[in-house]
Amino acid sequence: MARAAVQRRLTWLRATVLENRPETARVHRLLLDVPGWPGHLPGQHVDLRLTAEDGYTAQRSYSVASAPEDPRLHLLVERAEGGEVSPYLTDELRPGDQLELRGPIGGYFVWSSAVDRGGGRPEGRRPVQLVAGGVGVAPFLAMLDHHRRTGGATAVRLLYSARTLQDVLARDVLGSWTTITLTRGAPADWRGLTGRIDRRVLEAQTFAPTTRPRVFACGPTSFVETVATTLVDLGHDPSSIRLERFGGSGDRS
Question: Per the database record, which ranges form the FAD-binding FR-type domain (predicted)?
Fold first, then answer.
């Protein structure tokens, strides 16, 4: 499956919407049925294409938020006010509607504990550190759910920044691997972290550079670049850090 998922020729497929539900006030989860889907690796993404009656097309990319074992494809879409695509995906799509989709795409921002174990890779003995900002947690949900389903032995942690507790996505998947920090207010009984992910938080809440972790960071461009720069300053190997960025439009998740 790994080789096919990374190397196969991409063609546009018809995806049927099974469910479109609000995950938070700003983010919707799309559940899709995709006949002919070849399977994916945790961390890969897809392209969605919308075509208007006059022939105008718009295309956006979204990380797959579901494990390969899930027969449905899950995407998380953050609604951007004034956006060209995300308001339609969150507000207009109904069960039974169809979308054009191609994928899976990407082999760089991928981690699978099952592949580590099955291939006997030395990387499988190295811990994995995930760092997410907002809806950038989407690919990590696929990684963590796959890790849980396959009984992966690789040590893994997720450091996850969300605006408020109500903005935390997929709490059922996060589990004990996850440390959450809230940046725009916390409930009175909140016992977790508050504030942005900075040098102090990264030093205290991530694997130490001496453990040689593989690091994956996903989120808005400024967030990801700050995280990467700080980790290198702390002594992490730049070649072990993989980044996935999206702009401020909210149409890339």
Answer: 10-111
**253 is a domain residue:** no
Query: How far apart are alpha carbons 160 and 180 in whole angstroms?
Result: 5
Residue 251 inside a domain? The answer is no
226 assigned to some structural domain: yes
Go through 181-194 and write b for each residue having 16 or more CB atoms within 10 A of its CB, e for each that does not: bbbeebeeeeeebe
Q: What phi and psi, each to the nearest 5 degrees, are found at residue 63?
A: -70, 145
Whole-prediction pTM: 0.90
Burial zone of 176 (CB within 10 Å; 0-12 exposed, 13-18 middle, 19+ buried):
exposed
Are 151 and 220 contained in the same domain? yes
Rounded to an integer, what distance in angstroms lies between the CA atom of residue 234 and that of residue 236?
6
pLDDT value of position 121:
58
CB atoms within 10 A of CB 249: 14
Tokens at 194, concatenated? 């508050």
The domain in which residue 147 lies consists of: 113-246
**Residue 104 preceded by cis peptide, ω within 30:** yes
Q: Is the domain of 117 the same as that of 240? A: yes
DSSP states of 48-91: EEEE-TTS-EEEEEEEB-S-TT-SSEEEEEE--TT-SSHHHHHH
- CA separation for the pair 198, 204 (Å, rounded): 10
Per-residue pLDDT of 179-228, as tens digits, reads 999 999 899 999 999 999 999 999 999 999 999 999 999 999 999 999 99
Nearest 5°: CA angle at 65, between 245 and 22?
100
Position 52 confidence tier, pLDDT thresholds 50, 70, 90: confident
Cα–Cα distance for residue pair 20/74, rounded to 1 Å? 10
Task: Retrieve residue 189's tokens.
Answer: 């009984």
